[in-house]
Structure formats: C-alpha cells, structure tokens
C-alpha cells in the first residue's frame, strides 16, 4: 500500500500542516489503521476507499479516530486529484462528519465548512494572565478568539498552556490585523493535548468571519503564524458556511510493507478503536476531538 505525506495550506515542503494519506481498495482492521497512525506520529493519517456512493474518508490521530479534520481533507483531495484518476474538479467525501465536498480551483483546493455562532464577551484578567498581554477584544464560539493590537504581539506570544486550558472554548486562538495578509493568527488546543496547531482550518471559520465583518471584505487572506506557517483563503458565504481554500505540496511517497489485514465490511461497526467524537467537546472521559 502506498502512503503519501502532504503538507496542507502551503506550497512549500516542510511548512503548513502535514498529513499522511492512504488510498486503498478495501478497509484494513481499525486497529491496524490506528497502529499506522501511531507509527506516523502525525496529527492525522487519512484513509480513503472508493465506494459506490463516493470516496469514504476516515481520519485517525495517534490516539484514535476523529469525526472531522480540515487539513487532512485538503491533503486527501490533493492526492486523489494529482495521483489517481479523478474526472472533473470536485470530489465528495463520505465521512463521520457528513458529506464533504472539495473543489479544485487552479492550484487551490476549496473546502466547505460550517460557521458557528459567536459573540463578544468581556476581556478578563485570566485571559491576560494566559497570554501575557491583555487582549483588545474577546469573542466566544466553539473556540475563544482573542484580538490583539499588532501582528508582532501575535507572533511573539508565549502563552501559558495551563492557564489557556482554564479559559473557555474548545481552543484559544489569537489574531490581529496583518501586515502582508488581512489577518494573522495562532491557535492553541491545550484541552486536546495540542499545544499549538500549525494551521487550523476550522478555527478560521471564526477568525475569518470576524475579520470579514470588521474589514467589510468578502474574502479574507489569512496567515497562521506558527513555526511552520500556512496561508488560507476564507470566503464567508452568508448561509452559515465558509469556503476555506489552500494549496498543498507532496513531501514523500512511501510503501507500507507491513500486513494491514483487510477487515470484513460487516465487521467494521465493531471497532476496537476509540472514536473521538464531537461529544468530547463536553470535556468528558470519552477522549479528545480535534478539528483542523
């Protein structure tokens, strides 16, 4: 079985957010997919099988299966469009998170994401302690988004991870007006045991929605200022959805020689793996859930 390592939200190797992608003829045992994800030790390994209704896509972290992932979806579409026969410029995936479409537009891959409701909340001393700088504004939806005065503040910030974990929201993002982009941001997920996400697509559903309204723009060119860095083009659609586009680049192709035993289709429902679902946003004992 061939495996592709793709960096998403970048056109340069060793930047953006990396994902492993495996396109298969049938499903291995869930435990085998989990073991391969652990071996890769990337945030996500994507597994794809073409079925009668479309391409079924599943994502595994080293800790278990998750219900939705942005950058690994972008990476998966990149592999199908460029390394497998794929007619047309749109792919539909069947996933645990529902049907997802990705459209190829030149060298960009455009995903369709939901936009959650968000509202401004008071800036608190706890926020200042966590970030080391007092935010100018705080907005809460699925994630907490804190707005700062300058790009330099966002780039140089060294948040206290323990203090971040005590703030509201699934994750905590920081953002400011950009010098070369409409906005710059960074995203932290200590509650999910992810200190900093290199490039977070789902976080930009909130970040770009805020800046589009603030700047009066129909599209937002965003830069995620993590160590790896990455670019996103975000286009609010006014129907509770956000188009998020990015580039991708192939870094490596490898051959998996270990025996990943093909599972009986009827047995797929009885997985020994831990499925990390959206219910985990309740911070219960079921695990963690990451949208990227």
Overview of the molecule:
- This protein has helices spanning 30-40, 70-83, 125-131, 151-156, 161-164, 203-215; strands at 2-8, 17-24, 45-51, 54-61, 64-66, 90-95, 98-105, 108-114, 119-121, 137-140, 144-147, 172-177, 183-189, 194-197, 220-224, 230-236, 241-246, 248-255, 275-276.
- With 292 residues, the protein is of the alpha+beta class.
- It has a 19-stranded mixed sheet that branches.
- It starts with a strand and ends in a 16-residue tail after the last strand.
Fraction of residues in helices?
A: 10-25%
What is the approximate shape?
globular
The residue-averaged pLDDT reads: 87
Span of the ends, CA to CA: 26 Å
> How many runs of DSSP E, i.e. beta strands?
19
What is the ordering of alpha helices and beta strands?
Answer: EEHEEEHEEEEHEEHHEEEHEEEEE
Q: Enumerate how many helices there are, as a single number.
A: 6
What would you report as the Rg, rounded to the nearest angstrom?
A: 19 Å
Ranges where pLDDT stays below 50 over 5 or more residues in a row are 264-292
The secondary structure category is alpha+beta
Strand-residue proportion: 35-45%
The biggest beta sheet, please?
Answer: 19 strands, mixed
